[in-house]
Amino acid sequence: MQRRPRFHITGPLTRAAAHAAGFTDRHLQQPGVLHLSRDTYLPVSMAGDARARLAAVLLTAPPQAVASHRTAAALWGVEIPLEDRDDRRVDVIVAAAGRAESRRDRRIHRVALEDDEVVNREGLPVTAPARTWRDLAGVLQPAALLAVTDQVLARWCTRADLERQLARRPTGRGCARAQEVLPVADPRAESPMESVLRWVVQEAGLPAPQLQYVVRDGAGGFLGRADLAWPEQRLLVEFDGDVHRERDVFVSDTRRQNRLVGAGWTVLRFTSSDVLGRPDEVVAEIRRALR
């Protein structure tokens, strides 16, 4: 009797393709196989790969489906803060006509797309960066949208590109949010949570800070660089992400802070627990320092 080949899934696969290769549903129930939806599968090792999840969804999506929204952002390397990290559904835009529905592995969006708003990214159809930004404006809160806008401006688009995209769709969901956030955006921001902190400052009506401000001593020597600065008040504000807990970084931060304080600067440092858990107190501390 001919021996059936060993089942080993190395990429996205449909149930029909597995059956055509001589395998059964029992093979698809192995621990190393992730069941994405009613007829789509993926190796568990690829569960966190946005590109692989998109490729799997496209196997059973309508022919002209295009990656959009959060999935497009992931393919462009844009990080979205304040998001549910357990939600790995793939966002795709499909034609208005048709029977495609959202499932546990995909969110279906029926919105119009222009030809120049779709590009090929790593072999997959995806909305262009400016269009991705405009779509995200309809689903993200302002702080997260500012973080996205900062990253898009730093890597993929000019401010004029985003203004043109907004002019193309001047109404509809997210329009007012995009108009509010875009003037505040700055490509010099170095982390998404730094952008969120800046939005907290903006919403509180505090004076706009300077970004990535370089501090020098009286002889022009370098003392340090700060995320946010109000030079006239000699105030520096830093966002400390996880990397700042590493020993070498912590030691370097401490020495730099001592130099800055010794030179007459006030240095305030905040973490994500501060920015997200007690934003009012963060604002109050900055406001007191500015006075």
Automatic annotation (TrEMBL):
User: Which part of the chain is the DUF559 domain?
Assistant: 227-290
The organism's superkingdom is given as Bacteria
Question: Sorted alphabetically, which SUPFAM superfamilies does this protein's record hold?
Answer: Restriction endonuclease-like
What is the recorded name of this protein? Transcriptional regulator, AbiEi antitoxin, Type IV TA system
Q: Which organism is it from?
A: Geodermatophilus telluris
